[in-house]
Amino acid sequence: MKKLLLGTSLASAMLVAASAYAEVKVGGSLETTINTRETQTSSATGNSSPTSIGHETDIKFSTSKDLDNGMSLKAGFDINNSTNEDQYVTLTTGATSFSVGNDVSGVADNVSQEDFTPYVAQDFHSAGTGGNIQGIETAHGANGFFVKHKGDMATVEAVYSPSAGASNTTGASSIVDHSTKGSGYDIAIHGSFGVEGLKAGYGMSKVQSTTATENDQEGKGYGIKYAMGDITVGAGRTINQDVATSTEDKVTTYGVTYNVNDQLSVGVAAGKLEVEGTANDEEYQTFQVGYDLGGMVVTAGFYQVENVGGTSGSDNENLEIRTVTKF
């Protein structure tokens, strides 16, 4: 009888909890890209790749509630291209939040070079230019414990991952990350620091090696961005270390955008990837334009990459048209 009563009580509590969390928010986006690339090497004339069309879908589920102890709870997950990801449970008290999950916040990745360089369309890292620019090699993509404090001047956040997971060569120049990763952490600070229109920040990441033949994986990033009315300017730098050789690659990007009116925006950006021991730097340029149709945003970006892989005369040109619809 006691077991029956206990089971009934537990079931009732679960039903009450389910009822309390019945309100679920659902949102998402559909992104479509049309991309054409022309490649050229020192030993061959230009070669145009067939135009490709890509889609990315993202559906977000979330719920939130004020708890009896005065804290607030938020939980959710994403379904990105049919893959369940970015699960999280967050407890917040005042300006401080504690989370357990996967990719709850970018942490050090929030201060990669693309976070300080203004873009109308996509940054070099995300646009698939055929070059090797990347963000910070971080631990935040694995399951971990997150803490964030939002102050008036800046936000401070950190994540510790007991097991940062496994990955292979990144493909970015000669930089290699761990074939097998141990534990890792990210720390970052970013904010306006009391100056209206300003964003500045610094972040670092470290993932332990699990083998004697590899060094610990380390990355850092920093930059500054400032908005003055319709004009935004900014620059950022990301540095990653090869775990096998301890050599570094350094990514520096900078740009400016201008809002012509409420619908039309234009922007230019440039950057370079420096790799120790490589004679030539990869160099990047882009011109971009965006138009808000009210319910759908259309952007076009023309990208140029020179000295791909550090090879003189190996160049790419990309034209990408992108639409983003949110619901």
Q: Briefly note the structural class of the backbone.
A: mainly beta
**Mean pLDDT over all positions:** 86
Largest sheet: 16 strands, antiparallel, barrel
Head-to-tail CA distance between termini: 51 Å
Please give the CATH architecture of the largest domain.
Answer: Beta Barrel
The CATH superfamily of the largest domain appears as: Porin
Number of strands: 17
Order of helices and strands: HEEEEEEHEEEEEEEEEEE
Name the beta content range.
over 45%
Shape: globular
Spatial ordering of strands, largest sheet: 1-3-4-5-6-7-8-9-10-11-12-13-14-15-16-17
How many helices does DSSP assign?
A: 2
User: Within the CATH hierarchy, at the fold level, what is the topology of the largest domain?
Assistant: Porin
Folded structure, characterized:
By secondary structure, this protein is mainly beta. It folds into two domains: 31 residues, no CATH class; 232 residues, Porin, CATH 2.40.160.10. Helices cover 7% and strands 56% of the residues. The chain has two helices and 17 strands. A 16-stranded antiparallel barrel has the order 1-3-4-5-6-7-8-9-10-11-12-13-14-15-16-17. A hairpin with a 2-residue loop joins β4 and β5. The protein is globular. The N terminus is likely disordered.
Keywords:
7% helix, 2 helices, 327 residues, globular, mainly beta, Porin, 16-stranded antiparallel β-barrel, single chain
